[in-house]
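Researcher: I'm preparing a figure for a lab meeting and need a structural model of a single chain. I don't have an experimental structure, so a prediction will have to do for now. The sequence is pasted below. Please return the structure as tokens so I can convert it later.
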Amino acid sequence: MSNLSLRERDAATIAQIGKLRFSPLSVIGGRGNRLIEEGGRSLLDLSGSAGPAVLGYGHPAIVEAVETSIRNMAGASLLLYPNEPAVSLAERLLAITPGEGERRVWFGHSGSDANDCAVRVLQAATGRSRFISFIGSYHGNLSGSMGISGHTAMTHTLPRPGVLLLPYPDPFRPNFSSEDVLALLDYQFETTCPPHQVAAVFIEPLMSDGGLIAPPPGFLKALQERCRKHGIKIVVDEVKVGLARSGMMHCFQHEGLTPDLVVFGKGIGGGLPLSAVIGPKEIMDHAPAFALQTTAGNPVATSAGNAVLKTIETDGLVERSARIGMLFSDALRALAARHEIIGDVRGRGLAIGVDLVKDRTTREPVAAATTAKIIYRGYELGAAFTYVGLKANVLEFMPPLTLTEDEMTEGVAIVDQAIADVNAGKVSDADVASFMMW
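Model: Understood. Here is the structure written out token by token.
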């Protein structure tokens, strides 16, 4: 038996290229909406493990579904033959997702591979090679999904040829208005980006990793209309903010969009690796064996997916996300009266961002170290949450959809104390030196 701590063993074995750590948290278990770290301390999870833990940990519906599936596994793949859990999940997704015409579902393991599949199949099926995306977007970490991302985390990789990155209009820092962005798109169409060469535009209806930015009303609808005129497909990335999190079943419904393709990930598997793409039959049936993954659509993960969708419906989690999310956001806004560092609280439902600023007048973002210190102090006080944003200055709250009102109140109190303690100098630069990766 090793005498090393879990964190030490992790450092000695797990590759850095797969890590994004915000605190010393080392997890040995989870119950409800809490994580249990080595040593037995329980922490309130306000990040949902970066989104997948939509029902928390050990939820009876997921436990029962997974145990039942493993005891009588319907194979281990969707590749060679259909299995009941995968087909049932595809039927459920089609039933709850608005769309036009005959559609099909593809299953993968993560948002990264789902967006990657969308890029590849759209290019092949339409014969068009260009794409439109946004600065600040994050669609994944495979070659296709990485290539259409516009986040600063992608600066280590070469951009994908033929991708037009537009500014995403930010109501809090309105450097580019909706009209500015649409005019820029029109100009690009007239000059260097012929619209007949563009296969699709990838949209985040709530830009999550870019800073939890909700676009100005009407912007995405106007963008959709422009693209539709040129036969450009509308792809909505719901990986992080979809399936009840936003206070509606789909986040794109807030914007009145009618997407051609919808991409799901993270929460759809309730913590198991699962993703999905819904799209038109003529796109998704482009060619047999075009986007194969041996264990994609396996019965265990898709059984968990069925349990997630059933629970969202039976437990009223869409309405719950809207209600608890509003209370959470209002409570965080109330902290601004005591903390000048809070410039804005925004988001939808239980996808909430707190924008931290040096000055409320100029809205200049705080240094990343300040954000990291608040995260670190929050961990010490008993809560796990993260940060996002192109300047790493936005506290992100993506808790399980099962978060209770009492837990929400507990979490806000911890955030309040963490900000006060950082302002008082209780966290040093050395404390966070290992936790500023993003």
